[in-house]
C-alpha cells in the first residue's frame, strides 16, 4: 500500500469515529458511559495521524473532504454524508492539533450536532467551539501560527464557573445516576415544551428517546407520563405543522416497546396512581394502539385480578377496528381464557366482520368460550348475527341453545319469531323440552311483536290433564310474555285467565294486565 493511500485510509477511519460519536450522542442520554467510550475510540483513530507532533488539516467541501487540495480517496459513503453535514454548518477547514483529547472530541461533536441556524445565531461554528473551550480542534482557520496563538489565549482564560454553576455541580455530585437522568429529562422536557422551531424540536426528540428509556423507574413515572403526553399532543395537534406531527409520531413509534408498554400498564394498574393519571395513561395506550396491542393482549392473559383485566380490556376496546386483526389471531390460542378474552373484546368493538370468525367458536370445546361467543354475537347484532343465533337455537348443545334463544329476545329479533313459534309446537314433556319452550316464550315477550300474541294465547289457554304442573309453567311464562308485549288483542284472554283454577296462572295473568295498564298510562 502506498504511503498516501495508507494515510487516506487512516483519515477515513478517524472520520468514521466522528460519525459513530454523532450517532452515540443522538442515541444515548448525557453522562452515559457509552459516550465516553465513543470519544475514546474516536481518539484512537486520530492518534496515528498526530504522531511526532504533527497536526491534521482537512478542507471540507459539500461532496467530501480534501487533503492537500486533493479529494480524500475513500470507499465509505458515510464520509460524504459527514462532509455535507459539516458543510451545512459552514465548516470549510478543519485542523486537529497533536494534543487532541477525548474530552475535546466529545465537546466538538456536541457542538457539531447543533442546528445550523443555532450555530449561525451564536456567531458561527468557531465561536461555538471557543465558547465550549475546545482548544485542540479548530475550524475555518488555515494559518497554524494564528491557531496556536488563539489556543494559548483561550487556555489562559479563567474558568467559566460562577457561584451558581459551582453550586449546581456540587448538588449534582451528591445525586445518584438515576436522579441525574431525571434532572436531564426534566430539563429536556422544558426545552421541548417551549420549542417553536420544528427542526430543533426533532433534534431534541433524538435526545429524548434514549433518555426516556433510562428513566423507566417508579420514581420517575410523572416525568415519563409528561413526556409521552407531550408527544401525543404534538402528534395530533391540528394547529401544528405536518413536520412536527410526523416527528412526534416517529418518536412515539420508537418508544412503543414492550418495556415501555409494561411500564405504562404497571402505572395504570397501581392503586396509588391518581384518577387523572390513570385517564392520561389509558389515553396514551389507546393512542399507541397498533404498536402495543399484542403486548396488551399478553399482559391481559397474565393478569390474575379481574378488575385489572377489565381495565386492560377496556383499553383494547377503545382501540376499535385497529385491534380486530390481532384479536382474531388470538381466537386460535390454545388457552381457552385467552380466546374468551379476545371474543369478549371483539363483541364490545362490534365489527360485523368479526361474525365470520366468531361463529366457529360456538363449537369450541370450552363452554365458557361458547357462552362468550353467543354474548359477543348478540352485542354485534344485525341480521347476520340473528341468523347465527337462529342456527345456535337449533343446536344439540342445550346450554348454547338456551342462551341463543334468550339472546334473540334481548336484541328483539323480529325475524326470529317464526323459529320461536315453531319451538312452541314441539311435542314432548321432558324437562329439557319445557325449558326450551319457556326460553322461547320469554324471547317472544322481549321481542314485543303482535305476531306472537295468537301463539302465546294458545299456550295460555291450553290445558293438560297428565302434565299439569309442567304445562302451567308454560302458561305462566306465556301470560308474562303477553303482558310485556302489551297488545290489546291479548286482554280478553288474560282477563279470562285471572279466574283460572291454577293459582300461579291466575296471578301471572293479573300481573300481565297490571303491566299493560302501567305501560298505557
How many helices in DSSP terms? 28
Structural class of the secondary structure composition?
mainly alpha
pLDDT below 50 for ≥5 consecutive residues: which ranges?
161-173
- Percent in strands: under 5%
Portion in helices: 55-70%
Largest sheet geometry = 5 strands, antiparallel
What is the global morphology?
A: rod-shaped
Output mean pLDDT: 87
Multimerization status: single chain
Kindly report how far apart the N and C termini lie: 106 Å
Number of strands: 5
How would you sum up this structure, described in words?
The chain has 521 residues and is mainly α. It has helices spanning 3-27, 33-46, 77-88, 102-112, 116-121, 125-131, 144-156, 163-173, 177-194, 198-214, 221-236, 242-255, 258-269, 275-288, 293-302, 306-319, 324-329, 336-349, 355-358, 367-380, 383-393, 398-410, 417-424, 431-447, 453-461, 468-485, 491-497, 503-520; strands spanning 56-61, 64-67, 70-71, 93-96, 137-139. It has a five-stranded antiparallel β-sheet with strand order 3-2-1-4-5. The protein is rod-shaped and about 125 Å long. The N and C termini lie far apart (106 Å).
In short:
By secondary structure, this protein is mainly alpha-helical. 68% of the residues lie in helices and 4% in strands.
List the defining traits of the structure above.
five-stranded antiparallel sheet, 5 strands, single chain, mainly alpha, 521 residues
Amino acid at each position: 500500500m502506498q504511503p498516501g493511500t495508507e494515510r487516506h485510509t487512516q483519515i477515513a477511519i478517524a472520520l468514521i469515529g466522528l460519525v459513530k460519536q454523532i450517532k452515540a450522542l443522538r442515541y444515548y442520554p448525557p453522562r452515559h458511559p457509552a459516550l465516553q467510550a465513543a470519544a475514546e475510540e474516536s481518539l484512537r483513530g486520530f492518534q496515528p495521524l498526530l504522531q511526532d507532533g504533527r497536526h491534521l488539516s482537512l478542507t471540507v467541501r459539500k461532496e467530501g473532504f480534501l487533503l492537500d487540495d486533493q479529494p480524500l480517496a475513500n470507499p465509505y459513503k458515510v464520509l460524504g454524508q459527514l462532509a455535507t453535514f459539516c458543510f451545512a454548518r459552514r465548516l470549510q477547514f478543519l485542523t486537529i492539533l497533536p494534543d487532541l483529547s477525548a474530552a475535546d472530541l466529545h465537546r466538538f461533536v456536541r457542538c457539531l450536532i447543533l442546528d445550523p441556524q443555532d450555530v449561525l445565531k451564536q456567531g458561527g461554528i468557531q465561536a461555538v467551539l471557543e465558547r465550549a473551550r475546545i482548544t485542540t480542534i479548530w475550524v475555518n482557520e488555515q494559518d497554524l501560527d494564528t491557531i496556536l496563538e488563539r489556543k494559548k489565549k483561550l487556555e489562559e482564560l479563567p474558568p467559566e464557573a460562577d457561584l451558581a454553576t459551582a453550586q449546581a455541580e456540587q448538588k449534582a455530585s451528591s445525586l445518584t445516576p438515576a436522579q441525574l437522568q431525571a434532572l436531564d429529562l426534566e430539563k429536556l422536557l422544558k426545552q421541548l415544551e417551549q420549542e417553536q422551531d420544528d427542526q430543533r424540536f426533532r433534534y431534541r426528540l433524538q435526545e429524548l428517546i434514549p433518555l426516556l428509556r433510562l428513566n423507566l423507574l417508579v420514581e420517575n413515572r410523572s416525568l415519563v407520563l409528561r413526556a409521552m403526553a407531550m408527544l401525543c399532543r404534538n402528534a395530533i395537534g391540528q394547529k401544528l405543522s405536518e413536520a412536527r406531527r410526523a416527528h412526534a409520531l416517529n418518536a412515539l413509534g420508537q418508544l412503543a416497546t414492550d418495556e415501555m408498554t409494561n411500564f405504562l400498564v404497571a402505572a395504570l394498574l397501581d392503586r396509588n396512581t391518581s384518577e387523572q393519571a390513570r385517564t392520561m395513561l389509558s389515553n396514551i395506550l389507546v393512542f399507541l394502539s397498533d404498536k402495543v396491542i399484542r403486548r396488551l393482549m399478553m399482559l391481559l392473559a397474565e393478569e390474575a385480578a379481574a378488575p385489572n383485566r377489565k381495565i386492560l380490556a377496556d383499553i383494547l376496546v377503545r382501540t376499535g377496528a385497529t385491534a380486530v386483526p390481532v384479536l382474531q389471531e388470538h381466537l386460535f390460542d390454545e388457552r381457552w381464557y385467552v380466546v374468551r378474552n379476545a371474543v369478549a373484546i371483539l363483541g364490545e368493538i362490534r365489527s360485523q366482520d368479526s361474525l365470520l370468525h366468531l361463529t366457529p367458536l360456538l363449537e369450541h370445546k370450552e363452554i365458557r368460550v361458547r357462552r362468550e361467543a353467543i354474548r359477543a354475537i348478540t352485542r354485534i347484532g344485525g341480521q347476520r348475527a340473528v341468523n347465527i343465533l337462529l342456527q345456535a337455537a337449533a343446536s344439540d348443545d342445550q346450554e348454547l341453545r338456551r342462551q341463543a334463544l334468550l339472546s334473540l329476545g334481548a336484541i328483539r329479533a323480529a325475524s326470529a319469531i317464526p323459529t320461536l313459534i315453531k319451538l312452541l309446537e314441539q311435542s314432548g314433556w321432558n324437562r329439557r323440552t319445557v325449558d326450551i319452550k319457556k326460553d322461547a316464550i320469554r324471547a317472544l315477550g322481549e321481542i314485543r311483536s303482535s305476531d306472537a300474541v295468537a301463539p302465546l294465547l294458545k299456550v295460555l289457554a291450553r290445558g293438560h290433564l297428565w302434565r299439569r304442573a309442567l304445562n302451567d309453567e308454560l302458561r305462566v311464562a306465556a301470560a308474562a310474555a303477553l303482558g310485556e308485549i302489551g297488545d290489546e288483542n291479548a286482554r280478553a284472554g288474560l282477563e279470562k285467565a285471572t279466574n283460572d283454577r291454577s293459582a300461579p296462572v291466575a296471578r301471572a295473568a293479573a300481573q300481565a294486565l297490571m303491566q299493560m295498564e302501567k305501560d298505557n298510562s
